């Protein structure tokens, strides 16, 4: 039976919060108990795809991530922990993969398109143009003197490219720009986001995985297109140069809903997060500010735990018997929101206490922390160099 080789990474964008723990870290902790290779890396090159102008924070963010990972219990004896940029072979394989990856694969990547359109509001522009292009596309298809196997598919493809072309022409100044002013978008914004690195980051992800012959990639559903693209690149390389890479499988991870103190999804950008590095006092203060059932004005009003963000977090930190008691007492107005929050804050602090102890140890021993990741990079490089020797040989590169 083929050994399972797990590859996963995380961009250094700041401190980790409870959402990161339950969405990613908890799954890594489970996987580290299994046999097989586990390569877990800090994706500092990937951080540059959208934040290349903010590198002044990069080193500090890397160290924060190292601290968070070790504090959470990621064991360097069970995982190979390293920083992506310290294994240069990732970049070499990325370059070689970029030579064989069709541009259309990247442009049709739904994650790339969604990010680009959301960041620049291009969806609104493109929708307008796609509607206008519909009649033109039908006329073009009618005039084509070739056999058309799938007219609907052809229509969609032409409509897509025509709308994209008109959008580009708008930014290039080929047509009137009032629409850009209306949406508060400028040409500079397009070029600051729409870089080669932004388009090609899934190719770098493929290199990250395949450099270690990774065959298992833990991801959420939104990352499935990237794993599929990695499989496509592996297939194409194998077809061109001979069997070299496995086609990795996505390991779908269960991600529970982790709400922030304002009831929305916990996120750094919403300023509603409880961080893994928060002190006991900070956690207590944040939980104390949490929104609850808006219809429960007084302690004597019956509550609705099923819609209360505080109760949602209780499900992650409170034992089943206490959880049941809180639910029943809330519905009967036998427990107030203040007391409910106090119980939650205490349970979160109990959960975070071992992490705080490990964090305090390594925070004062920065050199030991960096040594762990340098040693991990050394081990990762050994495996990566083996792969690159094989790749160069098969591609006839001296």
The domain tally reads 3
Kindly provide the name of the CATH class of the largest domain: Alpha Beta
- Write out the strand line-up for the largest beta sheet, numbering strands in chain order: 1-2-3
Count of alpha and pi helical runs: 17
Count every beta strand, where a strand is a DSSP E run of 2 or more residues. Answer: 5
Strand content: 5-15%
Our Rg estimate from Cα atoms comes to: 25 Å
Q: Given the C-alpha coordinates, what overall shape results? A: globular
CATH architecture verdict of the largest domain:
3-Layer(aba) Sandwich
Determine the fraction of residues in helical runs and give it as a percent range.
55-70%
* Overall pLDDT score: 89
CATH topology of the largest domain: Rossmann fold
First-last Cα distance: 34 Å
User: In this structure, how is the largest beta sheet organized?
Assistant: 3 strands, parallel
How would you name the oligomeric state of the polypeptide chains in this document?
Answer: single chain
Written as H for each helix and E for each strand, in order along the chain, the element string is EHEHHEHHHHHHHHEHEHHHHH
Secondary-structure class: mainly alpha
CATH superfamily of the largest domain: HUPs
Low-pLDDT parts are: none
Protein traits:
globular, Trp-tRNA-ligase_bac-type, Tyrosyl-Transfer RNA Synthetase, three-stranded parallel sheet, nucleotide-binding, 398 residues, mainly alpha, 6% strand, single chain, Rossmann fold
């Amino acid at each position: 039976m083929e050994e399972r080789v797990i590859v996963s990474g995380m961009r250094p964008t700041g401190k980790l919060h409870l959402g990161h723990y339950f969405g990613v870290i908890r799954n890594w902790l489970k996987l580290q108990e299994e046999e097989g290779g586990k390569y877990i890396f800090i994706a500092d090159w990937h951080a540059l795809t959208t934040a290349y102008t903010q590198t002044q924070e990069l080193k500090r963010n890397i160290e924060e991530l190292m601290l968070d990972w070790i504090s959470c219990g990621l064991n360097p004896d069970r995982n190979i922990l390293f920083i992506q940029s310290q294994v240069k072979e990732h970049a070499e394989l990325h370059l070689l993969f970029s030579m064989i990856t069709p541009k259309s694969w990247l442009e049709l990547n739904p994650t790339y398109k969604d990010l680009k359109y959301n960041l620049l509001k291009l969806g609104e522009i493109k929708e307008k143009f796609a509607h206008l292009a519909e009649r033109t596309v039908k006329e073009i298809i009618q005039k084509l003197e070739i056999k058309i196997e799938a007219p609907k598919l052809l229509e969609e493809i032409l409509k897509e490219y025509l709308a994209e072309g008109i959008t580009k022409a708008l930014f290039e100044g080929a047509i009137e720009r009032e629409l850009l002013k209306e949406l508060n978008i400028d040409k500079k914004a397009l070029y600051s986001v729409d870089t080669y690195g932004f388009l090609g980051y899934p190719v770098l992800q493929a290199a990250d995985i395949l450099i270690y012959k990774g065959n298992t990639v833990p991801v959420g559903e939104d990352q499935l297109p990237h794993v599929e693209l990695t499989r496509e690149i592996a297939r194409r390389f194998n077809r061109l140069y001979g069997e070299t890479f496995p086609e990795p499988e996505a390991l779908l991870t269960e991600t529970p809903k982790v709400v922030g103190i304002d009831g929305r999804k916990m996120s750094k950008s919403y300023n509603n997060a409880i961080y893994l590095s928060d002190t006991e006092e900070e956690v207590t203060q944040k939980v104390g500010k949490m929104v609850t059932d808006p219809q429960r004005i007084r302690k004597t009003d019956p509550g609705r735990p099923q819609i209360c963000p505080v109760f949602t977090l209780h499900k992650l930190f409170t034992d089943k018997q206490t959880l049941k008691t809180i639910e029943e007492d809330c519905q009967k107005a036998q427990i107030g929101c203040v007391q409910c929050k106090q119980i939650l804050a205490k349970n979160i602090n109990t959960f975070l206490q071992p992490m705080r102890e490990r964090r305090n140890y390594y925070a004062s021993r920065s050199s030991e922390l960096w040594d762990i990741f340098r040693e991990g990079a050394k081990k990762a490089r050994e495996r990566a160099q083996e792969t690159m020797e094989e790749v160069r040989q098969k591609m006839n590169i001296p």
